[in-house]
Specification:
Number of helices: 9
Distance between the termini: 15 Å
Shape: elongated
Structural class: mainly alpha
Largest sheet: 2 strands, antiparallel
Radius of gyration: 17 Å
Number of domains: 1
Length: 180
C-alpha cells in the first residue's frame, strides 16, 4: 500500500496509481542500484557510518540533503551509471518524506534492510506486484487511462480512491498474490 500511496494519506488516487505504474519498467534498475549502493557498506563498521560517508561525499553544498543532481553525480563517482529517469526512480524510492531531496536518515532507512535481506525480500515482492500490475495495462493508451480503469473496477464505495482493502481485493481478482 505504501508504495502506491505516494502522499502517505492512507488513500490511493488515480494520479498515484498512474505515477507508480509509469515507473514500472525502471523498478529492476532501481533495485539493482540500491543493492550496489548497499554493498558498499561492507568496508564500514555499520550501515549508518557508511551512509554518513556517502552523504558527505555526495553533498556538494553541505546542507545535509542530496538533490537529484548531487545524487546523480555521487552515484557516478561510485561507479553507478543511471539514466535521468532511473535516478528519478531512485530518488522516488529514497525520498520517504517526498520533499524532493534525500537525507541521510532516509537513505539509512531504505538501505538498512539490504544487510538483513528482509526488507529486500519485501521490496522485491512489492516491485514484482507493481511490475505485474503495470504489464496488465499495456492494452491502454497510457497509464493514466489504466489507472482510471482500476479505480472504476476496485472502488467499491465510488469515492474516487482505493483503500487498502479495495487494493487487496482488486489484486486478488487479477490473481496477483500479495504473499509472493
Amino acid at each position: 500500500m505504501e508504495r502506491l500511496d505516494i502522499d502517505r494519506d492512507g488513500k490511493i488516487t488515480e494520479n498515484e496509481i498512474a505515477r507508480v505504474l509509469s515507473g514500472g519498467a525502471q523498478v529492476e534498475v532501481v533495485e539493482l542500484a540500491l543493492q550496489k549502493i548497499a554493498a558498499g557498506a561492507k568496508g564500514f563498521s555499520s550501515m549508518a557510518e557508511y551512509v554518513r560517508d556517502l552523504v558527505r561525499k555526495f553533498d556538494r553544498n553541505s546542507d545535509g540533503l542530496l538533490s537529484i543532481n548531487e545524487l546523480t553525480d555521487g552515484l557516478t563517482k561510485i561507479g553507478i551509471f543511471l539514466t535521468q529517469n532511473e535516478v528519478k526512480g531512485l530518488l522516488n524510492k529514497l525520498d520517504l518524506n517526498r520533499d524532493g531531496e534525500v537525507s541521510g536518515d532516509e537513505i539509512l532507512r531504505v538501505l538498512e534492510g539490504y544487510g538483513t535481506g528482509k526488507s529486500h525480500a519485501l521490496t522485491s515482492s512489492i516491485d514484482m506486484i507493481i511490475t505485474k500490475l503495470a504489464a496488465s495495462g499495456k492494452s491502454f493508451s497510457n497509464m493514466r487511462e489504466y489507472a482510471k480503469s482500476l479505480i472504476r473496477k476496485w472502488d467499491r464505495d465510488n469515492d474516487g480512491i482505493i483503500t487498502f482493502y479495495e487494493l487487496c481485493e482488486g489484486l486478488a481478482k487479477m490473481k496477483i498474490n500479495l504473499n509472493q
